[in-house]
Design brief:
The protein is mostly helical and 150 residues long. The chain has one domain. Helices cover 50% and strands 0% of the residues. It contains eight helices and no strands. α5 packs across α6. The mean pLDDT is 82.
Length: 150
């Protein structure tokens, strides 16, 4: 009689959870997924931030790679190349925008500093510094304000 053993589990017994884990073995974990998909923000905001964090928004840098017409500089500040990272955290106008949005809520610690270069990293640090009872709201506010400017 032939017996089968499941090598993905120490007890050599097949379970659906062990099969699920085996399916994703070796996959790359994308850290900000929980902040993006487990918040109160509308779906269109979540999709925008998913694209922004993965550098997939159609800004001048991506247009230039495909030889498509694009602005030479950021249309807001005219001081740096237009990239999604610049448009979300490093442009002087955007930093002022974040200050105006976050300060009335007592979250001015979340305003991007001059040396911030990566939106996902800034967001992670600002979210971590936000009190736990305000964190889900901060993350939703970040989504909504970035994806649907007022």
């Amino acid at each position: 009689m032939k017996t089968h053993s499941w090598r993905c589990e120490s007890a050599c017994v097949f379970t659906t959870i062990s099969a699920y884990r085996a399916f994703f073995h070796g996959s790359i974990n994308f850290e900000p997924w929980r902040r993006i998909w487990k918040t109160w923000a509308p779906p269109k905001c979540k999709v925008f931030l998913w694209l922004a964090v993965r550098d997939r928004c159609w800004t001048a840098d991506r247009l230039a790679k495909r030889n498509l017409p694009h602005p030479n500089q950021c249309p807001l500040c005219d001081q740096a190349d237009e990239t999604i990272q610049h448009l979300l955290i490093s442009c002087v106008f955007v930093r002022e925008f974040w200050f105006q949005v976050l300060s009335p809520l007592g979250l001015q610690h979340g305003v991007p500093s001059l040396n911030e270069q990566n939106f996902a990293e800034w967001w992670r640090k600002a979210s971590k510094r936000t009190p736990k009872d305000k964190r889900k709201g901060f993350n939703s506010l970040a989504y909504f304000r970035v994806a649907v400017p007022t």
